[in-house]
Amino acid sequence: MIDYTCCCQAVYYELIGIGGIYQVHKVIQSDPPEHLYTGGWSRPHASVWWMQILTGAAR
């Protein structure tokens, strides 16, 4: 894992890097938890998306 938001929130995110490919993992804490993945990006592209998520600009 490269970075993450606080898991104390109802929805949190993780930036994951494996073998030079980066994804964002979104977790919705419900019963059962929902796990969503997006990505398959290079590090620069993933960094742009990560900052958009953190600033609330991602759509």
Mean pLDDT: 95
**Share in helix:** 10-25%
H-E order:
EEEEH
How many separate helices?
Answer: 1
* Rg result: 11 Å
Question: What percentage of the residues does DSSP assign to strands (E)?
Answer: 35-45%
Profile the largest sheet.
4 strands, antiparallel
What structural category characterises the helix and strand content?
alpha+beta
Q: Count all strands and give the number.
A: 4
Query: Alpha-carbon distance between the termini?
Result: 23 Å
Low-pLDDT runs: none
Strands across the major sheet, in which order?
A: 1-2-3-4
Write the layout of secondary structure elements.
Blueprint: E1 3-4, E2 11-18, E3 21-28, E4 34-41, H1 43-55
Antiparallel strand pairs: 1-2, 2-3, 3-4
